[in-house]
């Protein structure tokens, strides 16, 4: 099992947590899990060096605060394991230009930045992701729905490599939970909650002041109807709130619908705001505790990188050999 998160925005948002990180915490119990802070991916768009360094530690601190346990999983920083960039080069050489051009995330992001501003790194980002996954021979990749196309590319390239050079890579599957595959913006519940696309009011950052978070939940856009019912197509705002509520409390949506029968949207929002505050308050505190002890944090990451490198180096050596590179003596 392998997954990663970018250290770009500082705080994780609720979509990152419910769509991905929450699953990572559960899956570390049952899988040999590798989780990383993907700083190589972060520099596909311009980064301030000091901010990147700080945000990389901050991302690791949040992953630990969310419940990752370095004794149960391998937690590391992508740039500490050079094999990622090395295998990415090989996979770049197997990827068609047209194939890479069809990646919708690249199309969206490069359209926003303008063709001349978008970097070649942004273009080959999905191929680096392919290398990330294949290095650990991952069977499953827990991600949100927005990453499905990149996992498909990973499967295609792994099959291509295996077909051309002999069985080398495990063919991975996406692990996407239907309920939380896409958490929506609170102000526009037809688009995914995202650090780059959401308005500040529609985006729940986990490290924001709990009061501000409560306010955002209370002013979430719903609809002109009054019934609290899950109907993603016709009632996207209410459905999004029910999904968030249900996932954070572990209470099934049907039970929430029963409880809120005859009640107003305001009641649902007030209660969910409370649930959110109860969730983010200890999360913020735990994150701060890890940040206050950077030596321990760095040593967790160093141990993680050491463990990751053992696996990554073995896979890379095999791939290099299959491709026909002369072994270094
Ligand atoms: N709204 C979401 N619902 C469910 N899952 C989501 N993920 C992101 N947004 C949602 C999942 O979070 C993981 C980490 O993604 P990332 O490293 O791409 O984080 P990000 O850059 O902070 O995500 P954004 O906000 O989506 O960034 P932009 O705006 O740059 O595209 C992934 O598993 C992702 O699926």
TrEMBL record:
<dbReference type="GO" id="GO:0004830">
    <property type="term" value="F:tryptophan-tRNA ligase activity"/>
</dbReference>
<keyword id="KW-0436">Ligase</keyword>
<dbReference type="GO" id="GO:0005829">
    <property type="term" value="C:cytosol"/>
</dbReference>
<feature type="binding site">
    <location>
        <position position="132"/>
    </location>
    <ligand>
        <name>L-tryptophan</name>
    </ligand>
</feature>
<dbReference type="InterPro" id="IPR050203">
    <property type="entry name" value="Trp-tRNA_synthetase"/>
</dbReference>
<dbReference type="InterPro" id="IPR001412">
    <property type="entry name" value="aa-tRNA-synth_I_CS"/>
</dbReference>
<keyword id="KW-0067">ATP-binding</keyword>
<feature type="short sequence motif" description="'KMSKS' region">
    <location>
        <begin position="192"/>
        <end position="196"/>
    </location>
</feature>
<keyword id="KW-0648">Protein biosynthesis</keyword>
<keyword id="KW-0030">Aminoacyl-tRNA synthetase</keyword>
<dbReference type="InterPro" id="IPR014729">
    <property type="entry name" value="Rossmann-like_a/b/a_fold"/>
</dbReference>
<feature type="binding site">
    <location>
        <begin position="192"/>
        <end position="196"/>
    </location>
    <ligand>
        <name>ATP</name>
    </ligand>
</feature>
<keyword id="KW-0547">Nucleotide-binding</keyword>
<dbReference type="Pfam" id="PF00579">
    <property type="entry name" value="tRNA-synt_1b"/>
</dbReference>
<protein>
    <recommendedName>
        <fullName>Tryptophan--tRNA ligase</fullName>
        <ecNumber>6.1.1.2</ecNumber>
    </recommendedName>
</protein>
<dbReference type="InterPro" id="IPR024109">
    <property type="entry name" value="Trp-tRNA-ligase_bac-type"/>
</dbReference>
<feature type="binding site">
    <location>
        <begin position="144"/>
        <end position="146"/>
    </location>
    <ligand>
        <name>ATP</name>
    </ligand>
</feature>
<dbReference type="GO" id="GO:0006436">
    <property type="term" value="P:tryptophanyl-tRNA aminoacylation"/>
</dbReference>
<dbReference type="GO" id="GO:0005524">
    <property type="term" value="F:ATP binding"/>
</dbReference>
<keyword id="KW-0963">Cytoplasm</keyword>
<dbReference type="InterPro" id="IPR002306">
    <property type="entry name" value="Trp-tRNA-ligase"/>
</dbReference>
<comment type="similarity">
    <text>Belongs to the class-I aminoacyl-tRNA synthetase family.</text>
</comment>
<dbReference type="InterPro" id="IPR002305">
    <property type="entry name" value="aa-tRNA-synth_Ic"/>
</dbReference>
<feature type="binding site">
    <location>
        <begin position="15"/>
        <end position="16"/>
    </location>
    <ligand>
        <name>ATP</name>
    </ligand>
</feature>
<feature type="binding site">
    <location>
        <position position="183"/>
    </location>
    <ligand>
        <name>ATP</name>
    </ligand>
</feature>
<comment type="function">
    <text>Catalyzes the attachment of tryptophan to tRNA(Trp).</text>
</comment>
<comment type="subunit">
    <text>Homodimer.</text>
</comment>
<feature type="binding site">
    <location>
        <begin position="6"/>
        <end position="8"/>
    </location>
    <ligand>
        <name>ATP</name>
    </ligand>
</feature>
């Amino acid at each position: 099992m392998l997954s990663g998160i970018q250290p770009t925005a500082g705080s994780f948002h609720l979509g990152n947590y419910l769509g991905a990180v929450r699953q990572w915490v559960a899956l570390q119990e049952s899988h040999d899990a590798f989780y990383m802070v993907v700083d190589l991916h972060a520099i596909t768009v311009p980064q301030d060096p000091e901010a990147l360094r700080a945000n990389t530690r901050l991302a690791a601190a949040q992953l630990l605060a969310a419940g990752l346990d370095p004794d149960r999983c391998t937690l590391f920083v992508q740039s500490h394991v050079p094999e990622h960039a090395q295998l990415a080069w090989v996979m770049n050489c197997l990827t068609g230009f047209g194939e890479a051009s069809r990646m919708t995330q690249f199309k969206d992001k490069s359209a926003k930045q303008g063709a001349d501003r978008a970097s070649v790194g942004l273009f080959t980002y999905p191929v680096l992701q392919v290398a990330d996954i294949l290095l650990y021979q991952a069977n499953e990749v827990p991600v949100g729905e927005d990453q499905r196309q990149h996992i498909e590319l990973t499967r295609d390239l792994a099959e291509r490599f295996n077909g051309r050079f002999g069985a080398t890579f495990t063919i991975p599957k996406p692990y996407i939970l239907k309920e939380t595959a896409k958490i929506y913006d609170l102000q526009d519940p037809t688009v995914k909650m995202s650090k780059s696309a959401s308005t500040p009011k529609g985006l729940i950052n986990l490290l924001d002041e709990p009061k501000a978070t409560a306010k955002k939940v209370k002013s979430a856009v719903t609809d002109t109807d009054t019934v609290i019912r899950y109907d993603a197509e016709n009632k996207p705002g209410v459905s999004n709130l029910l999904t968030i509520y249900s996932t954070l409390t572990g209470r099934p949506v049907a039970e929430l619908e029963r409880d809120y029968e005859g009640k107003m949207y305001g009641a649902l929002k007030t209660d969910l705001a409370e649930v959110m505050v109860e969730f983010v308050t200890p999360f913020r505190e735990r994150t701060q505790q890890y940040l206050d002890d950077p030596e321990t944090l760095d040593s967790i990451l160093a141990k993680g990188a050491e463990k990751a490198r053992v696996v990554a180096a073995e896979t890379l050596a095999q791939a290099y050999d299959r491709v026909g590179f002369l072994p270094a003596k």
